[in-house]
Amino acid sequence: MSWIFSKQFMAANAQAGKHMAEQYAVLKGMRAAYNRSNEVIAADMPTVNSGRIPADVWRDMDAQTSVLMRQPNLTLLNDLMPLAKPLSIGKLYAEYRIASDAGNVRSSVSGEVQMLNDKTAYTYDGNVVPVHTVGWSRDFREVAGMASEGFDGLMDDQANSLRNLSNKMANYVYNGDSSVVFNGKQGYGVKNHPNTLQISFSAALANINLATSQDGVAIRKAFQYIRDALRITNAVDGQITFYVSRAILSNLEQAWNSANSSNVTVLEMVRKLEGVAAIKEDASLTGNQVIALCLESRFIRPLVGMATGTYAVPRVMFNDPHRFYGANAVGLEIRKDSVGQAAVAYAS
User: Fold this and answer.
1) Of all helices (H) and strands (E), which one includes residue 216?
2) Which one, of 312, 328, 331, lies nearest residue 37 by Cα?
3) Three-class SS of residue 16?
4) Residue 159 falls within a domain, yes or no?
5) Which residues, including other chains, have CB under 8 Å from residue 258's CB and lie 6 or more apart?
6) What CATH number is attached to the domain comprising 204?
7) Are 21 and 10 in contact (CB under 8 A)?
8) Are 158 and 270 part of one and the same domain?
9) What pLDDT, on the 0 to 100 scale, is given for residue 120?
10) Nearest Cα to 197, choosing from 276, 300, 100?
């Protein structure tokens, strides 16, 4: 599944492809209704230019959406897209089941022990799936005048509006939104999710600043500490991907030992740590901020009820404005196990 309409993701998974096809059918239906309303206006009032939007303009908008929704401040979310779980748009809150261990084990010489009765117990956790929306409009005469200019003004409106939607998505994935509340739960991001392991550099690592420190050994130990918090303390069995600010990534490029001529950088030494999958720059992180996680759907995934699309509102009168909006329905799920441990950490 994906938070943008993509043939690649549709082909990768049958269930995700089915949900995305259903969502795209709604998008096309809305656009068809908008175009029909303009055709009715033109038929009833032939002297009025209805400002119908040609099919190639919609295609350009869709192509522009794919580009805008892959900006540098969406590095983490784009990595999570292939892991996303498709949902019905009717799902405001998505729960998952947490299973305990089961089976009492006894050791004896004879093997003759009483019947051991036990079973798996379940608890539930869940996350809100909010709709994110941005809107814009143009006067009917403006749109009529754009016909000879390839509707460039509308393309600019869409680009600037979806850029804001993209920025909102980045902010939501990292910080959540306390105004989004359902079933007693608010919309959380990676940084403040109840299931995210919080690591304080001041408490655990003598106030090290990964964006400015010139001590390569201390920087490597900080990354090792974060890795160990997940792989040892939380028993995570997968590879760990680190997302860092631009300032940290730049600082990691310093020489590991300036006294020799090997040109080995601190970044290369950190990458050599066992269990480190990658270290990636993410513009949504600033200063001394690091996110570390195991990039697997059993630990973290977006919840997608509607992929990002551009819609238009049907018009009734010839002088009604042309109103458009971009929207998607995306939440974030960070899972924990029966003892409260997760595979996502935020260090700052």
Assistant:
1) helix 216-228
2) 312
3) helix
4) yes
5) none
6) 3.30.2320.10
7) yes
8) no
9) 45
10) 300
d(CA 167, CA 117): 53
SS3 312: strand
Burial class (CB in 10 A: 0-12, 13-18, 19+), 19: buried
Contacts of 244 (CB under 8 A, 6+ apart): 210, 252, 279, 280, 281, 282, 285, 289, 290
Share of residues in the chain with pLDDT > 70 (%): 81
| Identity at 223, one-letter amino acid code | F
- For 274, the token pair is 């066992």
DSSP state at residue 345: E
pTM score, whole prediction? 0.81
Count H helices, E strands: the chain?
10, 13
Q: Rounded to whole angstroms, how far apart are CA atoms 244 and 252?
A: 10
Q: Tell me: the pLDDT tens digits for 230-242?
A: 999 998 989 999 9
241 vs 33: CA distance, rounded Å: 45
Low-confidence spans in the chain with pLDDT less than 50: 1, 102, 119-120
| Domain containing residue 238 | 197-293
Q: What is the pLDDT of residue 156?
A: 85
List 96's β-bridge partners, or say none: 125
Q: Are residues 279 and 324 in the same domain?
A: no
**CA atoms lying within 13 Å on the CB side of residue 281:** 13
pLDDT of residue 128: 86
Q: How many CB atoms lie within 10 A of CB 283?
A: 13
Q: In 244-264, which positions are buried (b, 16+ CB within 10 angstroms) versus exposed (e)?
A: bbebbbebbeeebeeeeeeee
217: left (phi over 0), alpha (psi -120 to 50) or beta: alpha
C-alpha–C-alpha distance, residues 105 and 208, integer Å:
46
Q: How far is CA 337 from its chain centroid?
A: 22
Q: Give the number of other Cβ atoms within 10 Å of residue 234's Cβ.
A: 19
With vertex at residue 299, the alpha carbon angle to CA 297 and CA 302, rounded to the nearest 5 degrees, is: 55
**DSSP string over 197-209:** EEE-HHHHSTT--
180 with 275, same domain?
Answer: no
Residue 45 counted as domain residue: yes
Structure tokens at 279: 């270290």
What is the DSSP pairing of strand 85-86 with strand 276-281?
A: unpaired
